[in-house]
Design a protein that fits this description.
Length: about 170
C-alpha cells in the first residue's frame, strides 16, 4: 500500500483529557435520562470506547452504519446508511457519536432518519469538528476539537480504510 505523510495534530494524552471532560459534561446533562448513545460506524469506534467509559450515568449503546467518503479524501454526495437500531427509540434521549463532522451531510441524514422514530431528544457528540467545511447547517452540541479544514486520520478515522489504528490524531500533509 501507499504510505501517507502526516503530522501529529493531537497526542494521546490530550485526547484522553478532552474525552474525560466530554464524558463529565454528558454525565451531568443526561443524569436520570438513560440516553441511548448511537455510534456512527466506523469512525466512532475508538472515541466511543473511551467516551462511554468516562460516562458515569446509566446509558445504552447502539450503532448505525453510514458512509459518504468513497475514495480517499474525495467526498461523494450520497450518504449510504444502514438500518436504524432495532430497539425502540421513541421517547428516548439519543446521542449520536461521530469521529469527525465535515460537510455535516452524514449526521444530517442520520438525524432526519432517526427523527421519524419520535425520540425525546437528539444531540451529537463528535471528537473532531470541521465547521468551516459545513455544507448543511448542523448544531453539534459536544465537540472534542476543532480540526480546521485539515484531513485528519487516526483514533478511528481513515484514509481508504487505513490508519484507524493510530493511537493519536494526525493531519495528512500531502
Ligand atoms: P460529512 O458527511 O461530510 O460530515 O463527513 C463525515 C464523514 O466523512 C465521517 O464520518 C468520515 O467518515 C468522513 N470524513 C470527513 N472528514 C474526514 C477526515 O478529515 N478524516 C477522515 N474521515 C473524514
Ligand atoms: Mg472514512
Amino acid at each position: 500500500m501507499e504510505y501517507r505523510k502526516f503530522e501529529l495534530l493531537y497526542p494521546q494524552d490530550r485526547i484522553a483529557r478532552r474525552i474525560g471532560e466530554l464524558g463529565q459534561q454528558i454525565s451531568d446533562d443526561y443524569k436520570d435520562k438513560n440516553p441511548i448513545l448511537i455510534g456512527i460506524l466506523k469512525g466512532c469506534i475508538i472515541f466511543m470506547a473511551d467516551l462511554i467509559r468516562s460516562i458515569s450515568v446509566p446509558m445504552e449503546l447502539e450503532f448505525i452504519s453510514a458512509s459518504s467518503y468513497k475514495n480517499g479524501r474525495v467526498a461523494s454526495d450520497q450518504v449510504v446508511m444502514g438500518e436504524n437500531p432495532d430497539v425502540s427509540l421513541s421517547n428516548r434521549h439519543l446521542l449520536m457519536v461521530e469521529g469527525v463532522v465535515d460537510s455535516g451531510k452524514t449526521i444530517y441524514s442520520i438525524t432526519e432518519k432517526l427523527k421519524l422514530e419520535k425520540p425525546a431528544s437528539i444531540e451529537v457528540v463528535t471528537l473532531l469538528d470541521k465547521p468551516r467545511c459545513r455544507k448543511v447547517a448542523m448544531n453539534i452540541k459536544y465537540v472534542g476539537f476543532d480540526a480546521g479544514s485539515d484531513f485528519v486520520i487516526g483514533f478511528g478515522l481513515d484514509v481508504d480504510q487505513n490508519y484507524r489504528n493510530l493511537p493519536f490524531i494526525g493531519k495528512v500533509t500531502e
